[in-house]
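Ticket opened by: R.M.
Priority: normal
Category: complex prediction / small molecule

The reporter submitted a protein together with iron/sulfur cluster and asked that the result be attached to this ticket for the collaborator who will pick it up next week. Submitted input follows.
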Amino acid sequence: MAALIARGVETRTGLVTVSGAIRKSGVQEIDLGWTLGDVAARAGGLSRPAQAVLLGGYFGAWAPIDEVWALPVEPQSLRARGLTFGCGVVHLLAEDACGVDATARIVRYLASQSARQCGPCVFGLHAIGECIGRLAARCAHASDLDRLKRWTGQLAGRGGCKHPDGAAGLLHSALTVFADDFVAHQGRRCVRRSTAHPAAVGQLAAVA
Ligand code: SF4
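Result attached by the on-call engineer:
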């Protein structure tokens, strides 16, 4: 994923970086009035079915693909839907890819990139990264999902800058778009991969 540089309202064009379940990944110059479907077509079309799209980069948000496919990839249109053009990232998540895992990798990266000067990053973002990391790895502690939801709601507005706020926004969208996947991961399973963590398999065997 990379950057987008909007040239301004007059030209109505911008640069987006398209990646994920797409035939031709890379930077594309687009008309800002194009829909997400148009952008995907310009990039050769989907390489396989997609379930969601990350718009705006790591401080952007996930959205269900069906809800935004016909939406213009234009800052105002996106803002009206609670989304952001941000740095112009358009990352399509394949149907068989795991949104929990994809989000965990981003959040753990963001947690590692703070200057560690403020509580929300030193404690909050770090703990959230550990928590979502366990969920993604299908080795969640009891109540990890509840903690993740609670901590995500407490993160924004408390740092010296907006770094934690960006992470909280991404997490909030993930918890909504991938709600069923998060519940499965709390149970140490992944509905996308139809597998369970070995420890969970052992627990089920013990119950049986
Ligand atoms: S909130 Fe901003 S300033 Fe404070 S530690 Fe995090 S990144 Fe640094």
